Amino acid sequence: MSKKNNIEENQEELAEERNESTVAETEEQTLTEEERLSQELAEQKDKFIRLYSEFENFRRRTAKERVELVMNASEGLIKELLPVVDDFERAQASFDNAKDIAAIKEGVELVYGKLKRTLESKGLKAMESKTHDFDAELHECITQFDGGEEQKGKVIDEVEKGYYLNDKVIRHAKVVVGA
């Protein structure tokens, strides 16, 4: 019986050793699993921080570009208007010495035509209002006059022209409407 007890004791000892080694292996696996997850988390945090920084840089850069665009939006128009300003200055200088009013008038009309063509090339278009029906979307009524039945609701006179810029109303025409 003592052999049997010895064998049983040995088996119990072996089972205990196996259990201890299994527990140690499980603890080691858990530790390595935790380390792996911790490492993965650190990598994801790093990726997130880099992506967030990239986005912030993009946002700042586009905001700066937008501000520059707004500040320099009229640069092209100004460059095209400078020759017209030069022409006006030359015309103004000639007023003192000129004796022929017809020549002055012709010069001013030429400069006005140049200015008008420059603005039209940029999309500016004058609004035709006279004899058309009054439209509150396009016109601003200054006053009303009794113009008879045929003039009722129509624009009789234009006090200030209205303008479109690329088919968008940028200034409403100030008009007199028939009542």
Describe the structure.
Helix 2 (75-95) runs antiparallel to helix 3. A 3-stranded antiparallel beta sheet has the order 1-4-5. Strand 4 (163-165) and strand 5 form a beta hairpin. The longest helix is centred in the first third of the chain and has 70 residues, at 2-71. It has helices at residues 2-71, 75-95, 101-121; strands at residues 124-126, 139-145, 155-160, 163-165, 168-171, 173-178. With 179 residues, it is an alpha+beta fold. It has 3 domains: 1-72; 74-122; 125-179, Nucleotide Exchange Factor Grpe, Chain A, domain 2.
Topology:
Layout: H1 2-71, H2 75-95, H3 101-121, E1 124-126, E2 139-145, E3 155-160, E4 163-165, E5 168-171, E6 173-178
Parallel strand pairs: 2-6
Antiparallel strand pairs: 1-4, 3-6, 4-5
Helix pairs in contact: 2-3
Notable features of this structure?
3 domains, 3 helices, 179 residues, 3-stranded antiparallel β-sheet, 3-stranded mixed β-sheet, Nucleotide Exchange Factor Grpe, Chain A, domain 2, elongated, alpha+beta
Summarize the structure.
63% of the residues lie in helices and 16% in strands. With 179 residues, it is α+β, with helices and mostly antiparallel strands. Helix 2 runs antiparallel to helix 3.
How many whole angstroms does the radius of gyration measure? Answer: 44 Å
Output the strand order for the largest sheet: 1-4-5
* Secondary structure: number of strands: 6
Largest sheet: 3 strands, antiparallel
Query: Helix proportion of residues, in percent?
Result: 55-70%
The assigned structural class equals: alpha+beta
Report the end-to-end length measured between terminal Cα atoms. Answer: 131 Å
Q: Flag low-confidence runs.
A: none
Q: Give, in order, the helices and strands.
A: HHHEEEEEE
What is the average per-residue confidence, as pLDDT, rounded to a whole number? Answer: 84
Oligomerization state of this entry? single chain
Query: Strand content of the residues, in percent?
Result: 15-25%
Q: Sum up the overall morphology in one term.
A: elongated
Q: Given the structure, what is the number of helices?
A: 3
